[in-house]
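Try it yourself: sequence plus zinc ion, in.
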Amino acid sequence: MKRLLVLGTIICLGLLLITVALTAQQAGQGAGAQGRGGGGAGLGPIGTIQKVTDRLYMIPGAGGNTAVFITGNGVVIVDTKLANNGPAILDQVKTVSNKPITHIINTHTHGDHTGSNQFFPASVEIVTHENTKTNMERMDVFKDPANKNGLPDRTFKDRLTLLSGPDAIDLYYFGPAHTNGDAFVVFRALRAMHAGDVFATKGQPLIDTGNGGSGVAYPETIAKATAAIKNVDTVITGHTTTGPLKWQDLVDYGEFNRLFLEHARKSLQAGKTSEQAMSDLKLPEKFKDYNIQGGRGGPGGNFNVIYQELQKK
Ligand SMILES: [Zn+2]
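Structure, out:
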């Protein structure tokens, strides 16, 4: 089980050992597979807080990117990295604000985004999509009574606005992609967003079917998001550590995922293995900086996951 907990993080980040990732898939990525994240092999230590725009920062490393939003009355953080990073997150926040942390938003269930929730006092309101709450309740770490304060206090189904005026944060849900509880978090006045692991990096989609993710729905979910969300220029991704990306990068990522799924369907129909699908994949020039090879899910990449999903239909 301990190995599975670590593997949950690997599925989430998807950059790591091929054989280990394959083992995770063979193990079914089932309920409870996402956990503490353990040592987070290869995830690196917590980075230095970076300014994104006025009142908004990001802290890279030690799991997913943490967004830090300074409001009139406090600080809202989005995602809490792997376990045991609470003090380090707080240290980084203190370099930009003395205000107390009032809210945590988790973009999804994975242990490299929820791992340090329980460090923060019970008075901090934790907000997630309703399916993410259900997924988190299945994680061993949150079954421990000592960590119950790390579970969500408030959930939403399709949309929720937290705070108001210049502090308004719009949370959106558009359907399954990385998991079945992926929240898009928009800092309205700043024209900025945290996209979580729906857009983890410029690379293959990370699909956690054990937590309700779907490679088939993935492109449609991004298309719905980019059609419905207005007035965003800057996008903090789940794991790009060098800084935020642009809105157009998310739009392009939707197109990439549409092409990726189309190629999976055609390759499956043509009787090709997922490894052949991966080696045949040709992409437009605009995706030349994407990290397609050498990564996620073994030689067949995430075509393995999409194939399994297509074969079930
Ligand atoms: Zn994830």
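One thing you can check immediately is this: The chain has one domain: 2-312.
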